[in-house]
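=== Per-residue structure ===
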Amino acid sequence: MTVWVRIATTAPYLQANWTEGLHVADAPTDHERSIQADTLWRELGTRQILSARAMAEKLYGTAPRCLTYLDTALRPPVPSLLSQQLTEMEPHDIGRSLIALSGMTHLLEEEEDLRGQALKHQINLDKAQTERAQALLADEEVMGGVRAREAARLALQRGHEAWRRYLAASFRDAHDSDQRIAAAMEEEKQTAATAAALVQDAEDHVNSLGSAAELAAQEGEARRTWSDAQEHVRELSSKMTELTTQQALLRSRRTILLPQAQGWDGSDCVTAAARLERRQRDHAKADLQRADAEGIATRARTYLHSVERGRSGKAGRAIDLLSEHGIPAHGLLDQLNVDEAARPAWEPRLAPWQDAIVVEPEHEEKARGLLHAALPGAQIISSDEGPERLPQGILSTLKVARFLGTLQERLIPSADGTTVQDQTLALTVTGGFTTPLAGREARLRQARDDLTAAEQGAAEAAEAVTVAAAALTLAKTQHAAAQAAEELARLGTREHDLQAKVDDLTGRVTKAARDEQELQQVWEKAVARHGSHEQLLANAKLTLEGVNKALKERHRTLAALERQRGQVAASRWQLQWDGTLEDAIHFLDQAPDQARSSRPAALRRQAEDGLRRAYEHYGVDDTPGTDVGQDLRVGEEMMRTFADTDSADLPTLTFADVAAPLDNRLAGHRDQDEVAAARITREQHAREQAIAELTNGVATSARNLETLQDMIEKHLDGLFAQISATFNDLDLRSDGYGAKIEPISVRPQGAGDWQWQVIPRWKRSRSGGYVSYRENANSAQVKVHAILLVLAALLADSQTQGRVLILDELGNSLGEVNRKDMLASLRDVARDQHLTILGTCQDSVLADAADVCGELLWFVHASAADIINQPTSAWAFDSNGARTQLTEDWITAGRAHA
């Protein structure tokens, strides 16, 4: 592989290009090679030119293969073990350098990645918990209102129940009093009837017959009228039940539709359906376009594979067929290169021969026979028998000079250079090819460009399918929401109409019930008059004289009892109760123990208390200026009037009348409260489940991180122990008195780096103790130990083969003895560990370096006007002298001083 690097004085300052095989400038002089280099640069044929930033990773990969230190003015100076600035480094910098030299940096990077994941899990958990706390506050605010309204409903329900018990108890007490008075009146009536009968028996005997018939007719008419009223009440009640059932069904349907209509954007069903149809068509179209793009990419990939093998087109099929029979053949245009300047003249000549193949003369007859049967129309060119010079501008390894010469003679370029013409055949072939037609590299470049374009088109088509699918899903959701919104609107109209009918029917039912009760009383009175008429009339005739005085007294008593009975008003209490006495007694017996009471006054206070509590739960109180609505303010005034009424009096204002404004408000909120409570319960469950999953993820990440950290710490502890032992051995070999390193692991907290603080120590005398590298010492001694520490790290690593170590200012500040010892140690480590060590040094160190190294490179920068060095001088040292001569021809070729 050949890599070319172009250096310029303007941006881009550095670019790299590469290709397989050997491609170097081989012109005789420097000037000619400089001109040739531009042409070679353009013909390398790679699909991209690398920048300085991308060059290293693209060419050599992401794994570190070379540890180096550059001390330039373009970046701030940084202490490094490789620059032998040991005393300027902090312990954690020394630890990081030793880990890098030992090839263990990937362990810390792996730990840092895993720690980052653990921190991300913890951040996600904290964020979810914060969001849950905020959501709980918002949910609690909503649920507070829901609970308050539910408490108001419960209080109203208890008030309704207490009011019903109050009406039942009042009707029971009034009925008991009415029965006592009725019994007394009956006694008086019987006595008065007896007296009246005795008085009237003789006088009204004839008239009594006519009067009895009239009373009988009145009784029948009252019976028919009362029966008609009963039938009317039953019809109205049945209609009321039907309307109430319809209202319940509408409320149930509304509860189902409300979640479906959430997120509605206001579009009607027709618009949403049209949009859904468009999205379906767009999705189907995008899917078809993706299939077409993928087919184009597949065909481009297949064609590129054929070009890479030299088997493109019809020529490729012919070559494969001949290869199966042992006949070597080559595509003409695949093995032919045309210079840029010669393209206008030669590409029209070669265009008709894109499917031609070249075979040796001895194989021509057999190839012709095979292709005649299997591939009609194949073009076969017989190669030249001897080497001949190819036409100007043509490069090829094929021997086709005779064929090309004939084309050049017969196909003459036109004056404007856009066509070639064959006068004999009266043939004209046009040119104007935008890309090179011939040459393996040119055809590969075009095939790769076509594949890149096809893959880009396939990727864009796949992205378009994803976008169309998302738009289709949204259109389906909006269409369903529009349908639900329209049905909700229709439901609202129907509910309004039903409520109007219910309100109207409620008044009619109440009036019909009152009329039925009154007609029943009329009939009962008619029955009573008709049934007692004959008896009273007979008694009046027999006892007229004896009981006339008693009759008057009885009439006075009856009048007093009648007034007393009217004050009791049992029938009107029955109308308020709207039921029978047995129903009232049974209802009172079923009351719970804590609510059971036989006193109407106590039951009315319970109803008033439930009503007051309901208004308080809903937020209606006596605070002036509170905006609760005119209807609730009217209800509040009615409640005060209701509380001022005596419990013994017939109520002119019922509990239902006072509770109606609040009942209407609560009924309006019922559906919304049910939806809100269900939504909050569902969302809270989802949040709790998500937090549980995040908590489990945090715990798992923490366990995995701790396990990895324990493994890394154990591994690096062993590594540092090995480095310390090697450091001590190297120091003793260099006539030192012993050395060691003291590592301290400082595990990271949060997102910080994991620091390994390493303190090098060595003895200055045989009997002395270990002193820190920060203690004052001569620079040569510190530099020696820095180099020894680097070598110890390399010797402790078992995977150093193929690495390169670069040491700057090698031998600087070292005496002759120390310098030779260090150079020998470097040589031994390079040999034992199979690595390459490059040392930059001054001229004074070259003599000593030559004794231990395998090669010397001499860089000369003659003048500041030169942007690069003069050609490098190289001396190679090897016991096998022939091996060091292998590159001599390439290094010295074309140099005037060589």
The longest strand covers residues 755-763. The mean pLDDT is 77. Residues 784 and 818 are 7 Å apart (CA to CA). DSSP finds 20 helices and 19 strands in the chain.
